[in-house]
Design brief:
It is a single chain. With about 120 residues, the chain is α+β, with helices and mostly antiparallel strands. The chain has a domain at about 5-85. The chain contains two helices and eight strands; from the N terminus they run βαββββαβββ. The protein has helices spanning about 15-25, 75-85; strands at about 5-10, 35, 40-45, 45-55, 60-65, 90, 105-110, 115-120. The protein has an eight-stranded antiparallel sheet with strand order 2-3-4-5-1-6-7-8, with helices on one face. The protein is globular, with a radius of gyration of 14 Å.
Length: about 120
C-alpha cells in the first residue's frame, strides 16, 4: 500500500546534493525557502520539507505527497542511499499513535554494509 507521504533521515547529506537527486528523481526543484528552522521547496508538484539536523547529525527529508516515484519510505531510502552514498534511516512501515511506543523506535538503516532493522531512540 502506497504511503501518504515519505519521511527519511540522511546522515551528512548536503542540501545541494539532495536537491540535485530530487530534481533527477522527481522533477525540477524550486528554490528552497527558509521557514523557521526548516526549508521548503517543490520538486515538480510535490511539496518538500528539509529539516537540517533534526536528530543530531541526521537531516530529515519529508515529501508531502503520495505521488512520489516510491511506494514507501524504505523504497525512497534505498534510492537515496544509491544516489547520495550516505547512511539513510526510515521507519519500516506506517506507524500510528495506537501502536506501542516501542514500535516507534524500530527503524530501517541503509548504508554501505547493507540494510538492517535497528532500534533508534530519537527522543
Amino acid at each position: 500500500m502506497r504511503q501518504p507521504d515519505i519521511e527519511i533521515y540522511l546522515r551528512d547529506a548536503s542540501q545541494d546534493a539532495v536537491t540535485e537527486w530530487l530534481s533527477q528523481a522527481i522533477g525540477p526543484c524550486s528554490p528552497w525557502q527558509p521557514k523557521g528552522q526548516t526549508f521548503k521547496c517543490r520538486a515538480a508538484d510535490i511539496p518538500v520539507t528539509w529539516l537540517p539536523k533534526a536528530v543530531g547529525k541526521w537531516h530529515c527529508l519529508l515529501l508531502e505527497s503520495d505521488a512520489t516515484p516510491w511506494e514507501d519510505d524504505v523504497a525512497c531510502a534505498r534510492a537515496a542511499h544509491a544516489a547520495l552514498n550516505v547512511e539513510i534511516r526510515c521507519a519500516p512501515g506506517s506507524w500510528s499513535e495506537d501502536e506501542a511506543e516501542d514500535a516507534a523506535d524500530r527503524w530501517v538503516c541503509i548504508n554501505d554494509e547493507g540494510e538492517r532493522e535497528i532500534l533508534w531512540h530519537t527522543s
